[in-house]
From TrEMBL:
Protein's name according to its UniProt entry: Amino acid adenylation domain-containing protein
Cellular component, GO annotation: cytosol; enterobactin synthetase complex
InterPro entries: AA_adenyl_dom, ACP-like_sf, AMP-bd_C, AMP-bd_C_sf, AMP-binding_CS, AMP-dep_synth/lig_dom, CAT-like_dom_sf, Condensation_dom
Domain named Carrier: residues: 505-580
Organism from which the protein derives: Actinomadura harenae
Amino acid sequence: MSSLAELFARQAAWTPRAPALLTDRGPVDYAELDRRSAALAAELAARGVGPESRVGVLLPRGPDLVTALLAVWRVGGAYVPLDPEHPARRSAQVLQDTAPAVLVTGSDVRVRPSDLGADAPVVHVEDAYAGHRDAPRTIVPADPDTAAYVLHTSGSTGRPKGVVVTHGGIANRVLWTVRRHRLGPADRILHKTAVTFDAAGWEIFAPLVSGGAVAIAPPGADRDPALLLRSVAAHRATVLQVVPSLLRVLVGEPDWSGCETLRLLFSAGEPLDAELCRQLLERHGCEIWNTYGPTECAIDVAAHRVDPAVPSGPVPLGRAIDRTRLRVLDEMGEPVPVGVPGELYVGGAGVARGYAGRPDLTAERFVPDPYGLPGARLYRTGDLVAWRADGRLRFLGRIDRQVKVNGVRIEPAEVEGALTAHPGVGAAAVTARDGRLVAYVTPARGLAVAPAGVELRAHLRDRLPAPMVPAVFVPLAELPLTASGKIDRGALPAGDGPGPSADRRPLSAAEWTVAECWMELLDGARPGPSDDFFKLGGHSLLLAGLAARLRERTGAPVDVADLYSAATVERQAALLTAARPAAGDEGDGAVPRARRDGPQPASHGQRRMWLLDRMNPGAAEYTVPLMLRLDVTPDVLERALTRLAARHEALRTRFRMDDADLVQVVDPPRPVPVRVVDAEPGALPGLVAAEVAEGFDLRDGPVWRGTLLREPGAVPLVLLTFHHIACDGTSLLVVERELRELCATGAAEDDVPDPDRIDHVDYTTWQRRRVETRAAADLDHWRRTLAGAEPLDLPADRPRPAVRDAAGAVVRWTLPADRARQLVRVGHAHGATPYTTLLTAFACLLGGYAGTRDLLVGSPVSDRVRPELEPVVGFLSETLVHRLDLSGDPDFGTALTRAAAVVRASLAHRHVPFDRLVAELAPGADRSRTPLFQVMFDLQDDGVSGPAEDPADAGLLDHAWRVARTDLGLTVRRSADGALAGRFEYATALFGETTVRRLADRFVRLLGALADRPRVPVGDLATATGAERC
C-alpha cells in the first residue's frame, strides 16, 4: 500500500494545475503545494528527521499547516500537532511527552516555542520555502506499521496521553472514504476541524489523494454556524463534517443559500438522532452519514448511511469500515447475543500502536484478539453497544463511568445528582477507588467549605439505596476540569490509601524490550525476569505477534519455535542478545509488488489444487459456493462482478505447466457474464445442486462464475461458485462485502487504479521466497512429529473402496450460546483458545469412537500474516497436521493442555507446504484414503453467517453438497452471540446419514459434558454420552 504522501505526489504529477487548497486569499494548486512540502521536507531531512521521528507542528489552520503535515510524511516521520489556541501548559506537556526532534512553526504564530519550554530545534516554514526552492520531490517510503502521527487525548492522570497512529491505519481510513463515497476532482471538502482532533486528518488528506480540493475554513468557523455556512457557500463545498450539537444549531440557521453543492454530510463525535437528520433534510437534501470511532483507531471504525424513511430514534453506529473488526464482548471476553449490551472492541488496520511512553496503559486498552490471526489486537473502547438484528451496532453509552462496588453496579451520575440536590453542595464527582465509592464535593456559592461527610451521608440515605451511598467524602474547593470544560476524573485526588507497589528485580535493556512486548500482548502488568509467557495468559496464536514485535523493535530474527521453548523474559531476552539481523532475510516483512511481465509461478497451495484437479479433471470436489439474497437486476450484477474481477487478479487467472512448473496467467479485465434463471416453484434446490456440481477448467478458465436465480415473490438469489484455487474462506468475506457495496451503488463507476495495490501474484512471490528460507528447518520437526503415525480407521458402515471416492454429504448441529460460552471458558482456564478447545473436543469424540488415543487431524490455517494481505482474494491458506495425544485417559483439562502445546508447535513450524510434506513423508500413499490424515477440523470465527446468510439457503447448500474432502470433516462457526453451528462433512462411500447424525448428536452431548465436568477422564465422558460408539 502506498503512503498518503506518495498518493498525493502522484496526484500532483497528474493534475499539477488543479486547485489543492482553497483559501480566502485564493487557491493553491497541486504543483505549488508539492513544491512547498518538498522544500520543507528537505529542511527536515537535513535536520535528521526520518521514519519514527516525531515532529511538532505549531501552526494555525491554513496552507502552511497542510504543507507541514505533508512534509513530515514525505520524510517518513510522525507529526505531533499543537494548537496555537491551546493553553501553553497543555502544549508544553505534549512536547515534554513526545520530545520531538524538530518543532515546525511560522513567523506569524503568536505562541513562541520558548513559551512552551521547547528545547527542540525550531524550523520556520518561511525559511524552509526560501532555502530549498529547488528541492527534489523525493519521498521516503513509509512502512504501514510506522508512526504517522501522535495525537494527544485526555489522560486518566490529568496529563494528555499520546496515541501513536500508523501510516497504514490512517491510509486505510482515508482510502475507505475515497472509495466508499467516490471522492474525486469535483469534490471540495471543508476543513474546519482543529488538527489536534483526528477527524481533521481525513478532511485534509481524502481530497488530496483523490484530486479534490481542501476548502480551508476561516478561524472561528467551527464555533460560528453562520460563518460555517458562509464558508460552505464561498468554497462551493461538497462535503462537510460536523458534530450533532453543531448540526442542531446549523439546522436553525436561516440562510442556507449557496450550499446547494453540499452532497455529503458526516456526523461524528456524539450520538445522532434521526429527528435531527429529518430536520436537516427538510432544509437541504444531501446524503447523511453517521460515523463512529475513537482516536485510538484512526478516526472511524464504523459508518451508517442515514435512512430518510426512519423519522425518529437514535441513528445506529452502523457496520465496520474496510479492514476493521468489531466485536461486542461481555465481562468475560465472550461474544454477546444480538440485543444484549456489551463493550465494543475494535481490531484491524486502524488500531493504533498504543500510547507513547505508556506501555502499562497500552497493555490495558490494547488487548490480544483471541479470535483473530496470530498477533492481532483489539482496542477496548469503553463504549457500551449492542448488535441489532440487521448486523448494525447501536450505541448505549460509556462503560467506564459505571462502577461496581461490593457486587453492585452503580451509575455515578445518579449519586452525583443526589449530592448536588443538597443546598450546600455546588458540584460533585463520584468514582470507585480500592473497592469503595468515593464522592468529591465542592461548596455551594457563598459557602467556604462543603458539608461534612456525616451530613451528606444522612442526606443520601433518604434518596438512594444503601450500596449507593459513598464510603468516603472528599471536600474540594473546585473540581478539576479538562480543556473542554468536563470534569477531569483522572485528576481527582486519590482520597486516602496508597496504591499497591511491586518489588521486582531491575530489568536489562533486552529484558525491558521483551517485557514491553508482553505488556502489549497480555494483561498490562510488568513481568519479572523469570515470569512465564504462557502462565501469564499467553497462547500459541500470540507467539507470532510477539516475534513480529521483537523483530520490529530490534531487527533480531527471533523464531516462533524458539520463543515457545524460551518462555521467560530473561530467556527470550537472551535470544535477542544472541540474534543478529540476517542479511537479505525479509522474513514476514511487508509484501512487495512482484513483476507483471508474464506468467508467474503458482503458489504452493495453487499447485496442490492443480494436482488434485489433474487426478479428476473438472470435478466439483473443490468448488466453493457463496449465496446471497440481493435485490439486484442482471445488468447491475454483471457490472458488479466485472468490477470484482478487475480488482482481484485471482478471479481472472488461468493455469498451465511451463517447463515442469505450474504458472499462473493473469488475463486482462473483461466483462463477466451472469447466467439468469427464472425458477419455477420448488425448482431451486435442483438448480443450486446442478450449479454447485459443475466443475471448472483450470487451464482455460474462468475459475469462477455467477448465477442469478429468480423465483416468484422472493428476493433474487445470487449464487457465486469458485474453484478453491482462486478462493479461500476469507476471500468469501471480501467478495461478499465488496459485492454488496457495488450492488448498492449500481456499480456505475470504474475503480481508480492503484498501481501499488497488493494482489495474489505478489503474495505468491513473497510466499515462495519465505518458504525457501524456512521449510528445510521445519521439515525436520514434521519428520519427528509424524514418525510412526498410523492412519485413522473410523468404524464405517461400508468397506473402504480401493480408490478413494470423493462423494459426500453434510449433517448440521448447533450448540446454544450459553453452553458454548461455558465450554470456551473451560478452555480459557487451561490456556486454550476456542480453536484448541473445539479441536480437543473433536479428538475426544474420535478417540472414543475409533478406540484410539493417537490421532492425526488436518486443519486449514490462513497465511494472511500481513495486514496488506487481508483484502486479497485468492487461495492464501495452508494445511497443518496436528498429532493429538489422548494416552493415559486424561481429563479434559489435561487434554487441552497437551493440545495447546501441539497447536503451538504446529504453528511454529508451518512453513512446509502440505504438498511437500506429503512428498517427503508419504510418497506413494495409499490411494484409498487421503494422505497423512483422514479427518479434518476447521473453526470459522469471523462474525459472518458463512457461504449462505439465510438458514433456508444454507439448507439449499446442504442439499447440493455432494463431496467429502476427507473421511470425516468438522467445520464449526462461532456466531456473534457465541453460539456454535457445526457441520459434519462425510464420505458417503463409508458412512450412512443415520450414523453421522448419531455422531453429531453424541458430539453435542459430549461438548456439554466436557464443559460441565472438565476433571472427569474423557474416556468416561465418552462412555457416558455414547460417543464411544454410534
